[in-house]
Amino acid sequence: MDVKTASAELGVIIGRFQVHELHEGHRQLIDAVRTKHKKTLILLGSTPGVLVTRGNPLDYFTRMIMLREAYPDVMVLPIHDMNSDDLWSKAVDKRVGEVLNVGTAILYGSRDAFIPHYKGRFATIELEDTKNVSGTELRKSVSDEVRANAEFRRGIIYAAHNRHLATFPTVDIAIINYDAHIATQIVLGRKGNDPNNPTKLWRFPGGFVDPSQDKNLELAAAREAQEEIGCGICSPRYIGSMLIDDWRYRKEADKIMTSIFIAQYIHGPIVGKDDLDEAKFFDLKNFDINIVLPQHRPIMEMVLSHLEKE
Known about the structure:
Elements: E1 10-15, H1 24-36, E2 39-46, H2 60-70, E3 75-80, H3 85-99, E4 105-110, E5 123-127, H4 135-143, H5 150-161, E6 167-179, E7 182-190, E8 206-208, H6 217-228, E9 232-233, E10 237-244, E11 255-267, E12 278-283, H7 297-309
Parallel strand pairs: 1-2, 1-4, 2-3, 4-5, 6-11
Antiparallel strand pairs: 6-7, 6-8, 7-12, 9-11, 10-11
């Protein structure tokens, strides 16, 4: 870590430090700045309104404690992310000014950090991290490790409670066969041996939205229809959404919300695949809704109502 010689009362490090413990690259950075200045300030980047995420799993308070334990003489303050470099730079200058009554300050960061975005009044120095330690890789390695102690379990419970309630997005698709523009049949599926469905009731093809594949809900619906049924369909049309009474989440604050689509059957065999062992057409005339899983009956009611209006 090569730090240019600078005469300033305060050395300021701006970073996120989203790791379970400070690695050698962090310590070299902090130690180098401490040797050059009478006072050292660390501004911890935080996104307001965002709690636990994979990229930022630790809140400000947790990271502040980690830094102060390692460096009791270093000041640690939060700095919030903003949607404007100008506003963020002014916020940084204000934070530094709260610590620095008189004198000058130098801001330190890596090539890929804040320096290209900073437009404030203090000088900056770019630091070259010779250790090249990736916080992302460290978080990944920690995420794969389970420890058999109470503190590990306490941390998991803390993280689970200090996040926003989650609504998990899913899609359900009503694949309709039309005869002279009249809806005549609908595709439903089921698992052959499902202990949670002993009466072998039927459900809509569908599943969770996958943000790594699905750019929108329409693509998610088309993907799930292809994965679970395999037939050719026209572009799915959104007709509504609702919370699902999924038995796995009945005692949870988190819930599943599904988006419901109607798609026209075009061609190909109706075959249960992926999560479905069986799939087939059902006549819509005098359809018995009792053959449908209870949690999917509100979906069927919405679909039938929509088809009737069509």
